[in-house]
Amino acid sequence: SEQTLAEAANLAAYFSKARDSSKVQVDYTKVKNIRKPNGTKPGYVIYDNQTTLFITPDEQLVESLKK
User: Fold this and answer.
1) What are the Cα distances from residue 56, in Å, to 42, 48, 60, 65?
2) How far apart are CA 56 and CA 22, in angstroms?
3) In 3D, which of 16, 38, 40, 35 has the Cα closest to residue 26?
């Protein structure tokens, strides 16, 4: 649902280096659009067909989701 996507994007933005920024870009896509190129470092992936959300991290929402 849209609410779940917004909450997940808020968590991603909050726990990123951009925590203190506003309008943090968070991309999401379907798993079938994610690839790991051969010979790359662990954790490195490329993706396409993404949708971008612009989120301002909200500490109060993060705290309410922890409960």
Assistant:
1) 29, 24, 12, 16
2) 5
3) 16
Q: How far apart are CA 58 and CA 14, in angstroms?
A: 7
Amino acid, single-letter form, for residue 41 = K
DSSP one-letter string for the chain: -HHHHHHHHHHHHHTSTTTT-SSEEEEE--GGGEE--TTPPTT--EE-S-EEEEE---HHHHHHHH-
Tell me the C-alpha distance between 57 and 10, whole Å: 5
Which amino acid appears at position 66 of this protein?
K
Give the tens place of pLDDT for each residue, 20-54. 898 999 999 999 999 999 999 999 999 999 999 99
22-54: burial string, b at 16+ Cβ within 10 Å, e else: eebebeeeeeeeeeeeeeeeeeeeeeeeeeebe
